[in-house]
Design goal:
- It comes from Sediminicola luteus.
- InterPro entries: CBS_dom, CBS_dom_sf, Diverse_CBS-Domain.
- Keywords: CBS domain.
- This is CBS domain-containing protein.
- 24% of the residues are buried.
- The chain contains six helices and six strands; from the N terminus they run βαββαααβαββα.
- The longest helix has 11 residues.
- The chain has a single domain, classed as CBS-domain, CATH 3.10.580.10.
- The N and C termini lie close together (9 Å).
- The strands form two sheets. It has a four-stranded mixed beta sheet with strand order 1-2-3-4. The protein has a two-stranded antiparallel ribbon with strand order 5-6.
- It is an alpha+beta fold.
């Protein structure tokens, strides 16, 4: 296994993002459309938070098992803003951070995705799924 592999080699570079002015209905639509579980919340290129699909499930009555469900409980979503639901000031890494360092951060915390930032700008996102795929590619 390569010991100094940078996270830039396994991260998702084409990142779906939200802004604090987007609503939670839009967020849920993006989660389902792109089959993702984490979305960075940006402001002027900088990351101000992370929203996870689990964050939405915590506040909604949506059936988490049936992902083809078209009806969204917009009443509940309209009671909250992105800023109220997102994790603020998320831990972030740089493109040069090693895969090992990312694995240590994720293993020791209760979140499953990290924004990858260089010079204050979002460059990508790395998730536990990315780490598992990388590990599998080593065998």
């Amino acid at each position: 296994m390569k010991k100094r592999t940078p996270v830039s080699s396994i991260m998702t570079k084409d990142v779906v993002t939200l802004t604090h002015t987007d609503d939670l209905v839009t967020a849920e639509s993006l989660f389902k459309k792109h089959h993702i579980r984490h979305i960075p919340v940006v402001n002027g290129g900088g990351v101000t938070g992370m929203l996870s699909y689990t964050d939405l499930l915590r506040i909604s009555f949506a059936d988490a098992v049936d992902e083809d469900e078209v009806a969204v409980d917009t009443t509940v979503y309209n009671m909250f803003t992105i800023e109220q639901v997102m994790a603020k000031n998320p831990v972030a890494v740089q493109t040069t951070t090693t895969v090992k360092e990312v694995a240590e951060i994720l293993a020791n915390n209760e979140f499953h995705a990290l924004p990858v930032i260089d010079e204050g700008k979002l460059k990508g996102i790395v998730t536990t799924t990315d780490l598992i795929k990388y590990l599998l590619s080593q065998y």
